[in-house]
């Protein structure tokens, strides 16, 4: 990863303020809400940008996040500046009537929740970590996501049209002193196609029977809501007795909705299978195009009750087609891989820090990948091998060793992509710098006296207004 070409730390902070903020604040508010009971100081307002406020808890969480990840934290003044910049973008979006549609927010919210599930391993772990149901977490995250989408739209408005030319990249490279060119370690490109195991018939029958028994207990007088609290694996609704609230038609998966709408108020369904597991549904009431139901969800155990034979057969077939060049790997991954995050990039595994498909070949690499390609040649496909997905499910995958670069001193031919990213970032940064200079006169910014020594947006915080 290049670390040359931008020497002003404050410029870096401004350029990446939004990206840094939105990665962190999606979790900051959730944590600080729980911490707010520990002391009033955490909720103290330390800055204001028009009608947007910055709490001390936000600043502390950003700072602590760096520490938790083992990174050197920027000075708090720099973090405060990034928070203020973020709020400036929001304030100016309101002034300029920059809006985002609800469907954009909903789509991003689902993606963020998916990321959280992968990060924590399961919904159960999320609930235990935050002490809140999934529904409550989503409600709290929604405003954060909406702000994120507005900020992104403002960024695109400000610098989205910035372009660079090959000549600009060449001039930038030539401006770097030869003795300052970084040394680039070996990098590899690796793709995979993942197939999840199939839940065995025995396990499916077992889950159905468990739900039949729970239905019989409810029919004999036990409270459905209490049974859901005890047995349902949908932890978000289980705390509310399986209550899913009112749902519009089309909001639930078809299998669930079809079974629910066939019920009269007070009736229970037979066990229903969906992509999420097996449901026992109880209809509460209908209201026009909406319906209100409870459910008990039981999920298959993908580790103890999984048949891998079909996954192996599918991957073997794909492997043979790819090897004889009847099918391209990227197309096979897009159409067949159960890892949807990599499928859209042709199966290529991306570096989470850079978003690029080139992975540094060192100790930071996933050990399973490192040892897998150690016995492979570039261009080879592996046999189907066992794989554990990020949510803990058992699967199989084939690995493609696409390319490998040798260690080298940075040069224009091999590292053009990295160099062009730096040039583009610098140019976008300049556009943002100009925008910030103009925008300061359009918004009211106030900072508490304790941060009076901070240089925010190039101006000293005099204890009150900027």
From TrEMBL:
Positions of the PpiC domain? 185-285, 288-385
Question: Transmembrane residues, as ranges?
Answer: none
The protein's UniProt keywords, in alphabetical order, are:
Coiled coil, Isomerase, Rotamase, Signal
Instruction: Supply the enzyme class, top level.
Output: isomerase
> Which portions of this protein are annotated as coiled-coil regions?
127-154, 197-224
- InterPro entries documented for this protein: OMP_Chaperone_SurA, PPIase_dom_sf, PPIase_PpiC, Trigger_fact/SurA_dom_sf
Pfam families from the UniProt entry = Rotamase (PF00639)
Alphabetically, the GO molecular function entries are: peptidyl-prolyl cis-trans isomerase activity
Q: Does the keyword Transmembrane apply?
A: no
Q: State its Enzyme Commission number(s).
A: 5.2.1.8
The reply on keyword Acyltransferase is no
Domain of life, per lineage: Bacteria
What protein name does the entry list? Chaperone SurA
Protein's organism: Dyadobacter linearis
């Amino acid at each position: 990863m290049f670390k040359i070409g931008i020497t002003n730390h404050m410029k870096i902070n401004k350029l990446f303020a939004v990206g840094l903020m939105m990665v962190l604040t999606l979790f900051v508010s959730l944590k600080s809400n729980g911490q707010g009971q520990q002391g009033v100081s955490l909720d103290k307002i330390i800055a204001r940008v028009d009608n947007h406020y910055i709490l001390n808890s936000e600043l502390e969480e950003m700072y602590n996040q760096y520490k938790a990840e083992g990174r050197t934290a920027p000075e708090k003044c720099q973090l405060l500046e990034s928070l203020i910049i973020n709020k400036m973008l929001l304030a100016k979006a309101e002034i300029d009537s920059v809006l985002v549609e609800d469907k954009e927010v909903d789509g991003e919210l689902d993606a963020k929740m998916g990321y959280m599930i992968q990060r924590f391993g399961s919904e159960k772990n999320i609930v235990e970590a935050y002490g809140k149901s999934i529904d409550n977490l989503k409600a709290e995250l929604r405003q954060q996501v909406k702000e994120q989408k507005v900020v992104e739209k403002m960024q695109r408005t400000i610098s989205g049209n910035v372009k660079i030319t090959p000549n600009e990249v060449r001039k930038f490279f030539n401006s770097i002193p030869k003795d300052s060119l970084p040394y680039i370690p070996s990098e590899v490109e690796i793709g995979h196609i993942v197939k999840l195991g199939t839940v065995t018939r025995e396990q499916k029958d077992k889950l159905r029977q468990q739900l039949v028994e729970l239905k019989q207990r409810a029919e004999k007088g036990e409270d459905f809501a209490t049974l859901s609290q005890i047995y349902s694996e949908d932890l978000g609704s289980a705390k509310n007795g399986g209550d899913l609230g009112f749902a519009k038609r089309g909001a639930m998966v078809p299998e669930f909705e079809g079974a629910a709408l066939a019920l009269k108020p007070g009736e229970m369904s037979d066990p229903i299978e969906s992509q999420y597991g097996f449901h026992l549904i109880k209809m509460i009431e209908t209201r026009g195009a909406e319906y209100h139901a409870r459910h008990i969800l039981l999920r298959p155990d993908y580790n103890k009750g999984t048949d891998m034979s079909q996954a192996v057969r599918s991957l073997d077939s794909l492997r043979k087609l790819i090897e004889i060049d009847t099918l391209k790997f990227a197309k096979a991954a897009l159409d067949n891989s159960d890892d949807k995050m990599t499928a859209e990039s042709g199966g290529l595994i991306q570096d989470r820090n850079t978003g690029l498909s080139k992975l540094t070949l060192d100790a930071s690499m996933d050990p399973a990948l490192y040892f897998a390609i150690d016995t492979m040649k570039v261009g080879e496909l592996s046999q189907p091998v066992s794989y554990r997905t990020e949510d803990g499910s058992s699967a199989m995958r084939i690995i493609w060793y696409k390319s490998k670069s040798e260690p080298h001193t940075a040069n224009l031919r091999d590292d053009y992509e990295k160099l062009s990213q730096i040039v583009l970032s610098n140019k976008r940064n300049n556009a943002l710098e100009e925008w910030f200079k103009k925008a300061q006169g359009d918004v009211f910014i106030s900072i508490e006296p304790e941060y009076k020594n901070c240089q925010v947006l190039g101006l000293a915080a005099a204890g009150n207004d900027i």
